[in-house]
Amino acid sequence: MKKILVSIAAVGALMVAPALAQKSEFVKRAYASVLKKAEQGDPNALFALGEMYYLGMGVHKDYDKSISYFEEAADKGHVKAAFNLGHIYFSGEGAPKDYQKARKWFEKAAEKNDPKSMLYLGRMYYEGIGVSKDYGKALYWYTKASAEEYPEAQYRLGMMFYRGEGVKKDFNEAAKLFEKAAEQGHADADYMLGRMYLTGEGVPKDMEKAKEYICQAYINGHKEAKKIMDSYGWKAEIPKERLPGLED
């Protein structure tokens, strides 16, 4: 039996080795092809090289090279490259945190209607990250990102109307924004809508709709929704695919 097991292992190694060699050869060819296009100034190729060095895909991870390629691509108008640079300097993942540089690159991408960059700019002004806290500017960027149908921006803008931050408190407008975000599966928006239907803030009081949104919030991973469900004895059919953040 032992000899048979050794033989099986040997066969397995023989099968895996060519596959790895084939993959390695493919990565080499892909890198060579991308590099050639990048040397010709192709912004997509420059962005791809930046991604490869940032993630260590087929090359040794090298944040400096990654940033260099992203900068070249961004200077040629590549929106995702500009966002990536903003995120690198905002998060400090790949370079020391530098909020001025982060804002510069987010603004560059936002000029080309990138909703993620608009969202980050809104957050920076809302929380006062690297800039003076300014609800007016936060409202401006959240509104622009929301117009691009970005659910996180719709939720955050809705919260500003709900709380009356930088704008007159407006539950009705908040509910509209939460509904747009909820339609895209945003758990926090589901939760807020459920609460509003419970209390009748900005919408008619409606226990059935409250139950629908609160249960959906729980299914989408909102932990606080479970407390309301338990208090009313509501149950939700949990899908087989367990989502991140969802408690048993």
Explain the layout of strands and helices.
Elements: H1 2-39, H2 43-55, H3 63-75, H4 79-91, H5 99-110, H6 115-127, H7 135-147, H8 151-163, H9 171-182, H10 187-199, H11 207-219, H12 225-232
Structure characterization notes:
This protein is mostly helical and 248 residues long. It contains twelve helices and no strands. Helix 4 runs antiparallel to helix 5 and helix 9 packs across helix 10. Among the domains are: 70 residues, Serine Threonine Protein Phosphatase 5, Tetratricopeptide repeat, CATH 1.25.40.10; 64 residues, no CATH class. The radius of gyration is 24 Å and the shape is elongated. 39% of the residues are buried.
User: Stretches where pLDDT falls below 50 for ≥5 residues?
Assistant: 1-11, 13-17, 242-248
Number of helices: 12
CATH topology of the domain at 27-96: Serine Threonine Protein Phosphatase 5, Tetratricopeptide repeat
Helix-strand pattern, N to C? HHHHHHHHHHHH
Mean pLDDT: 88
User: What is the overall shape?
Assistant: elongated
CATH class of the domain at 27-96: Mainly Alpha
* Intertermini distance: 44 Å
Class per helix and strand makeup: mainly alpha
Largest sheet, strands/sense/barrel: none
What fraction of residues sit in β-strands?
Answer: under 5%
Tally the beta strands.
Answer: 0
**Residue share in helix:** over 70%
Q: From the 3D coordinates, which CATH architecture of the domain at 27-96 would you assign? A: Alpha Horseshoe
Radius of gyration, whole Å: 24 Å
- Write out the CATH superfamily name of the domain at 27-96: Tetratricopeptide repeat domain
